[in-house]
């Protein structure tokens, strides 16, 4: 393929890469430029997103996209839609971070630059069409994420979170690499489509082990059980804006990568990977729900919530149909909104001493002292629980519908039953805010960015979100249609 066409397809990554390099030089030459670099980084994300919308979401001739760099990279509707979600989550993380980092004395210009480079890695991940591209994008994202997790140098929890994430992330990368080497050895190719053709018919034991190892490595990246052990500790120890970023953008990238591998590379062996995905989905739902019940730290509670929600996402993938993938994308979109909103609410829980509060007991009676914050948090908790008429209910509904349509009625029934367990700890948060005596711990916060962002997200996941269903359904169906089922 012509180099010019390849460079045209990767223009979002080029915009973000050159922006990151330029802003890195600005950070080196001009001290105290953190605020400016954060704003410039958001602008770069907006520019990359605008190009994706203009060329691939509004131009019908690019609906199916095309391959770049001799099949290493594929730009299509699925990658375009995923990138918009990633850029949105990254931009929100940059918008809410400066005041938080300034108050803890950790605001440095490297933070937005690391977010940009992590976003470049995630952009490559969702458009990967080859095992080599997959690994390059994954490691670019991971290397930036390790530093972000330990960004507050004088905080022992942050340093511990970064170290745990690095050690366990290296283990997961090794598992993934071993699976990739097995697939290459037994199929003779690293291209997703060529691997899919080589796996048609009877599958050998070596190829099956390759599938298992690749799925295990990717399951770690999306914090699906039983590869979730790092999630609560890293989410609790990392700075809250970083935790919000980890819980949203990387989940989108790794989930889409998992979808591409399952449908494109392993599509001819659905029976081999479908059972694995079903077991992982149920384990994630149950462990996420049960594990959250005894948590007294709100960040750890939301960590288990993310594990729980990944289980519901994987039910859509287990269906192995275009409807299932479209349902996954709907749920993923709503999940990003709910998760970002939940962490934005946590960032406003500040005590009289100016320190952030993360304990469950700290929000007792919050509706009496901070009624608007309590209302927003209640909306996000009810939506995460999937209680109608909040928008989170729609996400669960379409996923379960896809599973039933694919003949996976027992999986849907177990998932619905397990979601009732998960509703307990979400309702517990609401009960503390509205029915317990006020502890007068939480005081007002003057961060307008948090208040406005949280308010907008609360409106989006409220019943008003149902107005977006026609557009959301059409976009996700188009994105899912880019895969060959």
TrEMBL record:
It is an enzyme of class 7 (translocase). It is a multi-pass membrane protein. It comes from Sphingorhabdus arenilitoris. Belongs to the complex I subunit 2 family. It catalyses: a quinone + NADH + 5 H(+)(in) = a quinol + NAD(+) + 4 H(+)(out). NDH-1 is composed of 14 different subunits. Subunits NuoA, H, J, K, L, M, N constitute the membrane sector of the complex. This is NADH-quinone oxidoreductase subunit N. NCBIfam families: NDH_I_N (TIGR01770), PRK05777.1-3 (NF004440). The chain crosses the membrane at residues 12-30, 37-58, 78-97, 109-128, 134-153, 165-186, 198-220, 241-263, 275-294, 301-322, 328-351, 372-394, 400-427.
